[in-house]
Structure formats: structure tokens, C-alpha cells
Amino acid sequence: MAGLTLLCVTAALLLLTSGGAIPPPEEAARMARFVLHNCDWGALATLSAQEGLRGQPFANIFSLSDGPPGPLGGSGVPYLYLTDMEISVQDLEINSNASLTVSLAQTPYCKKHKYDPQNPLCAHIIFCGSIVKVNDSEAGLAKKALFSRHPEMESWPKDHNWFFAKFNITNIWVLDYFGGLKIVTPEEYYSVKP
């Protein structure tokens, strides 16, 4: 187990250093793509539809992927593998609007530089939009993106009726330096490579 952990940490460090140096602060769209591509999970916030919490914000952790690991693998589209049995997915069935936050705090980058997760230099991205099921033509792409990073997903119980979904991005905020949030449009975001 320790060998596998070391291998994962080494792979993450290589990913952050091999041809994929962190973008400079003036390239906010590239930073957004970079952070998403280097993160394997994010905090998804929904508006709760649960009794006693109805209408309240509710954040939950979800595995995600925008493509296979490596500097050329990212599409920028956050894909998720979901089931209607999950409490946040039940919220999304009532209101598909959500926000998704990803942070370099989950990679070795911030620890290496001794950045606290709340330090702006430990970049994090906030996406707003909605969750939508992918159509049949996009399902293969979503499956490859997710299963390449989360191979355990293939063995999850079939009777849970898993489905592929994506985060349909409408707004993007980048916090990667001092001075406040930067706004990136989806058009800017998708036009650059991480």
C-alpha cells in the first residue's frame, strides 16, 4: 500500500512539473484549465431538496475528471459518475444548478511550497453552472476520462444505475494570486490549453 501511495504522489508531482508548469497569474483561463486537469475531485454545492434542509446550500465531494492524466489529456469538461441514490444527485433532480470548487491543495503543489489551502497562491477555481447527463455520443469520452483516473468506478455496483454526467459551465472565478477573484468566461476557458 505504501508503494502505491508513493507511486501516486510521484505521478502527481511529475504531472505538475513535466511540461505542465503552473501558469502565471496573468493567464487566468489557463490556470482554470490547469487546476481542473490536475484535480481528481471537487466540492460540489447544490441547493438541498432534503426535508429539513430544503433550499439550504449543501456541499459534497465528488470524483471528477476532464480527461486522462498527462499534459495533453484534458478537455476542460468536468465529468462525473453519478447515481440517483446519492443525496446531492437527488438535489440536482429538483434543481440542476450547482457550483464546483477544485483546488491545487489536493495536489502536492501547495504542500511543497508550504501554502495553506486558503492562501491565494494555492490556486482554486469556482465553477457555476448545471449538471447534465451526457448523451450517448459523449458517454465514451466521459467513461475514458473518469475510469482512467478512477479505475475503481468500473467495479461499483451495477444495480445503483450509475450514469455519466458533466458540469455545464456558465461562470468561472479564479483565485490564484493576491488581489481578488478573476472572472473567466467559458469561451476563454475552452479556447486555451492547460
Overall radius of gyration: 17 Å
Helix share, percent: 25-40%
Major sheet, described briefly?
7 strands, antiparallel
What gross morphology would you assign? globular
Could you name the CATH homologous superfamily?
A: Electron Transport, Fmn-binding Protein, Chain A
Q: What is the domain total for the residues?
A: 1
Measured by DSSP, the beta-strand proportion falls in 25-35%
Number of strands: 7
Average pLDDT for all residues: 90
CATH class categorisation:
Mainly Beta
SSE series = HHEEEHEHEHEEH
Q: Helical element count? A: 6
Give the CA-CA distance, first to last residue: 31 Å
CATH level 3 topology: Pnp Oxidase, Chain A
What is the name of the CATH architecture? Roll
Low-confidence stretches: 1-19
In terms of structural class, how would the helical and strand content be classed?
alpha+beta
InterPro entries: CREG (IPR014631), CREG_beta-barrel (IPR055343), Split_barrel_FMN-bd (IPR012349)
Keywords: Glycoprotein, Secreted, Signal
Protein name: CREG1 protein
Family: Belongs to the CREG family.
Characterize this entry briefly.
This protein is α+β, with helices and mostly antiparallel strands. Helix content is 31%, strand content 26%. It contains six helices and seven strands, in the order ααβββαβαβαββα.
Structure characterization notes:
This protein is of the alpha+beta class. The chain has a single domain (28-191), classed as Pnp Oxidase, Chain A (Roll), CATH 2.30.110. Helices cover 31% and strands 26% of the residues. The chain is built from 6 helices and 7 strands. It has helices at residues 2-17, 28-38, 87-94, 108-112, 136-149, 186-191; strands at 41-47, 57-63, 79-82, 97-103, 124-133, 163-175, 182-184. Strands 1, 2, 3, 4, 5, 6 and 7 form a 7-stranded antiparallel β-sheet that branches. A hairpin with a 6-residue loop joins strand 6 and strand 7 (182-184). The two termini are 31 Å apart. Mean pLDDT is 90; it is low at 1-19.
